[in-house]
Amino acid sequence: MWHAGLVAQSPLTGVLVVVGVLALATAFGWWRRRRDGRLRVVAGTGPAAADETSAVLAAVGVRPGGVTLVQFSSAVCAPCRATRRILDDVTRDVDGVRLLEVDAEHHLDAVRALDVWRTPTVLVVDADGRVVRRASGVPVRAELVATIRPLLAGAAR
């Protein structure tokens, strides 16, 4: 029966809404899984932005020379512990690489300045103090080592 101002709904409408929401959630999960932990190249910025980034990195403890892996983490982050294990292995196995873990909750200015949206976020900083790669999520160890080796070779020259 039709009432004024009400639209009759078919039982199929609810099913279509559920199927649509599941399709969107599946697409988002697939997209996130493909990006999670992958090292992305950081686009070059102008000298002023590079100076600001260098100042922020220095404020959290990054020192020039060698390659530094900067991990932004938080106390309640389970993937942060897995990331720390991977980064510890890399720094132990590859000479010339330092690890710096930054508590995101205590360094909110750095989090904002470096555009960190989630933990863990890993920044690969070269010998000149530039962020050259970044990953959100647990990075892939082999990809990380493959990224670091050329940076170390360039720093040795």
TrEMBL record:
The keyword NAD is annotated on this UniProt entry: no
InterPro entries, per the entry: Thioredoxin-like_sf (IPR036249), Thioredoxin_domain (IPR013766)
Single GO MF descriptor: isomerase activity
Keyword RNA-binding: no
Start and end residues of each Thioredoxin domain: 43-153
Keyword field: Isomerase, Membrane, Transmembrane, Transmembrane helix
Protein name: Thiol-disulfide isomerase or thioredoxin
Organism: Micromonospora krabiensis
